[in-house]
Amino acid sequence: MKKKVLSILSLSAVLWINAQEKDSLNQKKIEEVVVTGQYTQQSINKSIYKVEVINAEQIKNMAVTNVAEVLNQNLNILIQPNRSSGDSNASIMGLSGEYTKVLIDNIPVVSDQGMGNLVDLTKLNVNNIERIEIVKGSMGVEYGNNAVAGVINIITKKSYSKTFNALLSLQEETVGKDYDWFKKGNGRHVQSLNLGYKISENWSITADVNHNDFQGYKGKYQGYKFFDPDNALRGYEWQPKDQLVTNAAVRYAKNNTSLFYKVNFLTETVNFYNPLVNVDILGEGNRTYVANDKDYFTKRWIHQFNIQTKIGSRINYTGDFSYQSQERKLQDYKYDVPNRTEKSREDKRTYYKSEVLYSRGMLSNFLDSKKINFQLGYELDRTKGFASSAIGNFGTTGKEDINRTIFNYANFLSAEWIVTDRFSLRPGARLALSDKFDSQFNYSLTAKYNFSEQSDIRGVFGSANRFPTYDELFTFVVDNNHDIRGNENLKPETGYSIGLFWDYNLKNSNDWKFNFSASGMYLNVKDRIESVIISNSPLKYTYLNIDNYKSLLFGGSVNIRKDNLSINAGVSALGISQVLNTGNITSPDDFNFYVEANLAANYTLPRTKTLFALYYKYSGESRQYVHIGNAQDPLDPGKYVLGEIGDFNMMNFTVSQPFFNSHLELALGIKNIFDVSTIRNTTIAGDGHNAGASNQNLFYGRSYFARLNYNF
């Protein structure tokens, strides 16, 4: 551990010492603007909320392929992958993907089980992203249901300065040690094309396509052709995934009016190769061995339209409208492993489908005053969801498909009051109505005080609620070992957060620029939904609103810039107090803290424009209580013990070199330099997808990549 830290500090020192006076075009900074939580687009320094921004240049330097990989570098955001389904959700402040709202251009993204939450971040490619904005804390007034832990807002590119833009990108990447240019089963192969055309001063069109072919990671397994009936070593630890994403958009802007329409289409195939093989009797003394494999197919459409204009000469109006659908299908087939042929293949079956109609409108700037501004808004969504008994766990009897439609409507109001030149306030409230759940009332109060032009402090209070998921409402799993049933009478969880954020900017006589930040947050969630034992003999579970969750977060960061050098470093301590309840016993409510730290360093050689980029993140050992039952005695209530999740280090390094007046760029790099794959985790039980009862496969080890960009 000491050697790793010393190597990072040494490399940072080298980057610092070699900083030159000459400015670099790649490092020039313009004042960043944000839209998340704002009345209108404005400077990040004037934002009433603390907004973290990851811009397109930073994303490019990371050499990442999707949003999940980008956010993995951020403190207090843990990307939780599911190697079987291929999905990855964002956990913020210890809360899973159900509690985080994911938006594209202020519009929540459709997912299997809802709108904006449990979004698979690997399905969001990065080649058309202008920036990602992150606000941590409860944002129920601005963004409604499920924005309990925070909001991730992905802002896409909408216009270009040049008349015609075309960018072609090719990236080849090893997956652990596996790679082959042609052979199936090795490596990641990514191709993308971005096009932009400025028709006139008012009209512009954009289009892009991205193909991400991930050929899987074998790990301890031996691939889909491997055959050994005595050892379950066939298949992959990380399943192969082939993904294609396309976007097309048109934008009109004139005077005070802008119109924007975009369509997004995604198609994805995930291959699951079963490690278990079964004997298939052919007759006449012959036999073979077959595996029951599955292919998973996803299709997603997102249509969105945005209008920004003025009503009369004063009132600002912003309207968002969207239709989205996502359908996931599976296809079972039997594979003859020794003979490497398919024996049979069933028809595709839909097992999840969501269709969403969404609209959000906001009016502001009612008064002719520089002191007070109001915002009045509405939000509505109609979500039609389907879950099939094909996956075996929905319906009142476990054998029925579930079709449900939920309509939600909300009005929200806030006022921004500039009390003095230094002090401003924004109170807000939202009333949300639903045809499924009781009415929800959320409220917020945000204050900002400027000590000087260089220093300010923000205080943020907000509340939010989370609606139950399909699993929690309708689960039905009954077999020899399980009796778990959903509960359609569940009520939404409620939560609130309090945050304090301080920023200080400094520029010295030698043109060094410093930004220091410190923050503290408290998050409280009540009526948490948890699986509860309702009968010891026979053993039965259901979901009830009985648990509570609290977290405390303290953090600090520093940003240093001078000419061609940029360094960002941060550290945080997160404490979690989670009250778990089985119905018979309750867990302790102690706060268990763990530490995270990150570092991003970028340096550009002035003469050659060679960019060196280093990204590092340390996640400390964390602890949480886990229930240990007694399978031999259903009358035994079991006990709660403190499980541990081991610490780990992640570091990526990239070198990029432009050629031909920056039209061509070659990037080479290493991801996961410390070769992390499995970490100790005693808070989960081992199963067919985990490395063992006390381990968790988190990454697939060290990988190498080469990327070629050509800008026409």
UniProtKB/TrEMBL annotation:
Signal listed as a keyword: yes
Lipid bilayer topology: Multi-pass membrane protein
InterPro entries for this protein: Beta-barrel_TonB (IPR000531), Beta-barrel_TonB_sf (IPR036942), Plug_dom (IPR012910), Plug_dom_sf (IPR037066), TonB-dep_rcpt-like (IPR039426)
Residue span, TonB-dependent receptor-like beta-barrel domain: 238-673
A molecular function (GO) term: siderophore uptake transmembrane transporter activity
A Pfam cross-reference name: TonB_dep_Rec_b-barrel
Main location group: membrane
Domain TonB-dependent receptor plug: 46-151
Entry keyword set: Cell outer membrane, Membrane, Receptor, Signal, TonB box, Transmembrane, Transmembrane beta strand, Transport
Family per similarity comment: Belongs to the TonB-dependent receptor family.
Protein's name in the database: Outer membrane receptor for ferrienterochelin and colicins
GO cellular component, one term: cell outer membrane
SUPFAM superfamilies associated with the record: Porins
Domain of life of the native organism: Bacteria
Species in which this protein is naturally found: Chryseobacterium shigense
Signal peptide: 1-19
